[in-house]
Amino acid sequence: MSAAPILAAFRQSLGEAWAGGAGALLPLGFLGGASVLVPLGIGSDGETLKAVGPGIIWVALALASLVTLERIFQSDAEDGTLDLWLQAGAPVSAIAAAKTLAHWLSAGLPLALFSPLLALMFQAEASPALLVNAGLYALGSLAFFFWGGVGAALSATVRRGGLLISLIALPLYVPTAIFGALAMSGGPGSAGAPLFLAASTLFACAVAPYAMAAALRLAAD
Amino acid sequence: MIRGERVLFREVSVAVRAGDALLLRGANGAGKTTLLRILAGLTRPEAGRVTREAAHHWVGHREGLKPQETPREHLKLWAQAWGSGAETDSVLTRMGLARPADVAGRYLSAGQRRRTALARLLLEDRPVWLLDEPYTALDADGRNLVDDLIAAHRAKGGAVVAAIHGEAGFAASGDLTL
Asked: Closest Cα to residue A150, out of A97, A198, A202?
């Protein structure tokens, strides 16, 4: 076994993410739009915005993962690429993980990196804590993308599978959302929360690739 | 093999040896593609087993070409994935793809897409070729090209299993009607 098929899958997915959905621009635009709408919806009171800001960014990350992953395996199943990857001589779980990672790099990570800017839009005070939060967003969104990938693999042969992905993946997002929000709350228990967030992400990275591989084999059968 | 509630075929036995070319025949829906997918290991048979002693190439009826991918990028990608040092330029020329080599998949004709998929066969020497309707969408020149590729492959000791409708342009060593 060699790493060549895995690298090739990573490269192809990266190219696909940028060709199909303008890569990071789509989720960033999405989040920008949502950030403008939130004050209109809940009022422009600074304290309120400051309180909901971190949560809005978590929700945006979750939605970005669902939006960008919808086509990741579905297009492969439709155009026959999935058959080729299954026969590429590398573990299917590694191929699936590489594809998911490529999509996270093009949509999840940019959102996390831009989160300090967005936090400022939500009236957060400029402080190094915003950079720490960016790291937490990056960590948490990785779990979102891996669980979303499981949903995407399970619905690879389903037309309009986007809704199905949400139904499968959203319950799996719960631990990440809880610990992520707790880590930024500053309340009791927030000191240990980043470790639990990291644990939930590690769990997702360890388990999700095998679930994706099983789902993809089933999709091709 | 069972599809849904229907038994597609049973008691099928296939063996290919070096230099063989086996034709799979049968009406639409008889199970030619399913049998090829079983041989490739993509589909699990309800009962029975497949023994593979050599690596194979797969060209299914879906080409595996992305809409934004050009034939050149496609061949480079799979050469990289398979760790093959094949010269993609000469493969493109051989397959008559030199002109549309840098045209994205969505702008290619069905025949050009099929030629791109078939070009993967030349990226790496693999003893067994599994071909599902290799002539589909090809012009006369393309069909001759497929026949030439198969002849050269068999001359080197390769084997081919192909589902083909109508006349095959090469002498098969056997055929199986499903």
From this structure: A97
